[in-house]
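Task card 7
Instruction: Convert sequence to structure tokens.
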Amino acid sequence: MEQKKINIGIVGLGFGKEFINIYKLHPNVGKVAICARTKSKVEAAAAEHGIPAELCYTSIEDMLKNDDLDAIHLATDIPDHYKHTMMCLKAGKHTACAVPMGMTIQECADIVNESQKQNKIYMMLETHLFTREFLYVKKLVDEGKFGKLQFLRSDHMQNMTLPGWPDYWLGYPPFLYGTHALAPAFEIIGKQPLSVVCHGSGAIKKERQSRYHCPFAAESATFFFEDTDVILESTRWLYDTIRQCREAFDVYGSKMSFEWQMTEDSGHVVYTNLEDAEVVDCPDTGYLLPPEIGKLANREAVEDKTHQSFIQGGGHSGSHPHTGNDFVQAIVNGTQPKSDAIHSAKYTVAGICAQQSAMRDGERIYIPRFD
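Output:
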């Protein structure tokens, strides 16, 4: 029996280039179109991946006129996420977009409302809901191996002075880009975030403060949740604080605990009994995917290891084919992806509220809900 197929357009060929092969190989995808502002970049990607000229664009407006495209995958700059997402939804396209969903609470609310109005799927492509580590730990939590959850800690520590990042990153407020640290921890706790208290620490260079007027080098937030006594402590920084990049979470329970490796390839640690500690290697997860794309979840499968996201992100731990597959399967099956509009708003807005708290000297901020 022939499988249902959809057609997808990818906008943005930096990070977005990783997804061309994922969609081309996916058994439920037919045509793959590509779009970037620079014609030479489009032509190079088309030649490499065999994309016909009629599916190549240098304008998102022109791509959206193609009625054959069912869905759009946005890998554009953060300041364009809201504008591009709304354009795609209003054009009647299912829309997946890189993180974060938006830069303000209102932007996130608008996307939730437009997705519902158009009856189209919105998905924020939160890679950290599909990493080997998250899938490994979440399974153990769901099986009750951790016992009672007692405390979670997460962090996304990154020094973005690495050459090559776009100018808009200069001085970017840490928790406005908080979803990598928050989404996996929120899903492990499994409760609605209620409020947050956040404090800023240190200071970035003066010349990096002018765009967003956030002075802090680091921010530390405590999140409180409905119907649980468990809290989450989360830390973010982006500039002028030296550390190897780490996008991580630690989970502490009454029977088992998990701590993310402190440095790349040093090994994650699982604690059991009183003093037992075991270094563990979270397994590849390709077996969870259609066989045509399963191999793309392996450690060696990152296509462009020179991109900044992979120099400082470890290739996002095998998550890319999972995010693409979740988007495709939701469209094909008429379901919602893991990070649908409401969940995406929850993760993004919680970070925005943490940023507000830091800028207000640790004032408790209550987090809006969208369900």
